[in-house]
Amino acid sequence: MIFNIIVGFIIPWICLVIAQLPNKLKLVLRVLPISSLMAFLLNDFFVKHGFWIVKPIFDENESYSAIPYNLGLYPVWGIFLIYFIERRIWSPIIFICIWSIGITVAEYVLVAMGRVVYDNGWHITWTLISYIVAFSIVYLYSKSNRKL
Q1: Tens-digit pLDDT profile for the chain (148 aa)?
Q2: 108-127 burial, b for 16+ CB within 10 Å, e for fewer?
Q3: Which of 64, 83, 108, 142 is most buried, judging by how many CB atoms fall within 10 Å of its CB?
Q4: What is the reported pTM?
Q5: Are 34 and 138 in contact (CB under 8 A)?
Q6: 124-144 vs 24-48: helix axis angle to the nearest 10?
Q7: Which of 56, 73, 49, 61 is nearest to 126 (CA)?
């Protein structure tokens, strides 16, 4: 579980804290809730239905091991996504695809290490699709709440 806390929570938040983003607090307040919500919803739904599991299993509840990622890596990744989309270097679709590929590669490393195990026909392509859907929702929500 220490690995999950360090990789999934501490390192992402350190990266966000040291990043020089203008209006960082407003961005965090706007994106953090929806990013965490998407992470919790997707992880809990798919773990409950046996598509994947994050190891180690903690206290006989498979969802506990994903909490550091749900509160760290995924929301921070979403915050950076929205930051770069709002800088408008490329279109949001391109950024969402690049971000989804990046986080899918990171998850693939965890799968290769045995920290995440897929089952019931789940594979890395489904993972990519789930990230595209989740980040699209985060983007749409953030776009609708830009005034915050």
Answers
A1: 899 999 999 999 999 999 988 888 889 999 999 999 999 999 999 988 989 988 887 667 778 888 999 999 999 999 999 999 988 878 899 999 999 999 999 999 999 999 999 999 999 999 999 999 999 999 999 988 776 5
A2: eebbeeebbebeeebeeeeb
A3: 142
A4: 0.89
A5: yes
A6: 140
A7: 49
